[in-house]
Amino acid sequence: MSGQNQRLTVVPTVTMLGIMKARLVGATRGHALLKKKSDALTVQFRQILKKIVSTKESMGDIMKTSSFSLTEAKYVTGENIKHAVLENVQNASLKVRSRQENVAGVKLPKFEYFTEGETKKDLTSLARGGQQVQACRAAYVKAIEVLVDLASLQTSFLTLDEAIKTTNRRVNALENVVKPRLDNTISYIKGELDELEREDFFRLKKIQGYKKREIEKQLASARQFAEEQFAEKVSLQKGISINSAHNLLPAAMQKDEDIIF
């Protein structure tokens, strides 16, 4: 969809021209702001992508270390420590909470782990293998930290990806549809107003010409009436016919004008 050859259906008036110009200014500012927002989100998106790559690279080593620590603990203790750990733990010591971080108007979810209360000393495999169990616990705590960070980054990554797509669609709509339509509408209104101005000018010229002709007709009628009156006067004074008086009219009128001036 493109707005290059489209315009809004409006009445071409000066008021509507002002409204369209104001809307164009608003669309231009909105396009600039959305473009800046898209750039900021893209920068944040790339930073998160780099963190995800580095976190996934380190996650492989951490998960491998934690699995190997569990194997060592099982080997040293010589038993399955799962049931002993479950019996010893009453409440979870590590928990995850979420919060929101605002980035250019987009709320990104952030997950972080925390320790609730004091951690009691683990007495699992106190007889033998206790050190390996504690090392295994520390390795899995570190694995939880990495997994929580990765979950936070992945969620922010997906949220940013959707926000960038939405923002880019709005930017493209303003740039390729809204602004061209407003430009075409403003050009149309200007053209119509210019045409109306030319029509008004032509109408005024026609009215002036009509009034000029009417005045000329009135002057001609007045001149003819004056000539008739003057011819009757000359006819009465000299006792001649009206036609003869008309023949003498130019000279008589010139004489009267000389007397007047």
Automatic annotation (TrEMBL):
Could you identify this protein by its name? V-type proton ATPase subunit D like
Per the similarity annotation, which family is this?
Belongs to the V-ATPase D subunit family.
Keywords noted in UniProt: Ion transport, Transport
What's one Pfam family here?
ATP-synt_D
Top-level taxon of origin: Eukaryota
Question: Which InterPro entries does the UniProt record give?
Answer: V_ATPase_D
- Name the Gene Ontology molecular function terms of this record: proton-transporting ATPase activity, rotational mechanism
